[in-house]
Amino acid sequence: MDLGLKGKTALVTGSGRGIGNSIAHALAKEGVNIIITDVSDANSEQVINDIKKHGVNCAFFKMNVADSSSVTECIKNIQEKEMTVDILVNNAGVTRDNLLIRLKEEDWDLVLNVNLKGAFNCTKAIAPIMMKSRWGRIINITSIVGVMGNKGQANYSASKAGMIGLTKSCAHELSSRNITVNAIAPGFIVSDMTNALSEDVQKDFMSKIPLGRFGTVDEIANTVTFLASDRAAYITGQVIGINGGMYM
Questions:
Q1: pLDDT tens per residue across span 88-133
Q2: 247 tagged catalytic
Q3: Which ranges constitute the DSSP H helices of the chain?
Q4: Per the CB 3.0–4.6 Å rule, which of 15, 90, 101, 142 could disulfide with 119?
Q5: Catalytic residue of the set 156, 167, 220, 225
Q6: Burial level of 195, CB count in 10 A (0-12/13-18/19+)?
Q7: DSSP assigned state of 102
């Protein structure tokens, strides 16, 4: 199935590893050139080489999404290399979990700054590029806890709920320039972090999922590629839950 994305360029934040890296690979398989950004460039050469195996161009830029000057400088460097951004995936995120009464102010600030302010910084910097070309796709990776909350994650839940509000407001503002803005809210997705949970904890989560299994990073990435394509041209301001029915 040709999604008509060949030749487009996507910037995926926090894509040096994890879900972000899977998203980058899924887009690259559709012929999308990839701009990898991450706060660390430790494995940048390997990440670039892996993406290029799909026959697309790939560049890596070190960027701290929480720092507006870092974002501005990164976008400036991208444009100086005569590159554009057609698709933005705001994926970068962190957690600092604790019960509310034990939650440190610095951990609240860090999570809100990276997850929510980071999405704001990147969207604000890249939207003018898309507006000029009158085409764009912005996809925000939020979370199931952004719509249902979760004990011990007041900061994370608030940041992800904020991303949903940001998504809807930006969808209103940018729609006249043929730019769609949507969010994906993953549920329990198999990852290094979830694999580290005890068997009892995993069983407890599993009991709450009607489909009876955990999700995969590919299922997140495949939805991103759909939302980035013209097959989703009439979808904007939406939150797509990928959670096996854990939240309906």
A1: 999 999 999 999 999 999 999 999 999 999 999 999 999 999 999 9
A2: no
A3: 18-29, 44-52, 68-80, 105-111, 118-133, 145-148, 154-174, 192-195, 199-206, 217-228
A4: 90
A5: 156
A6: exposed
A7: G
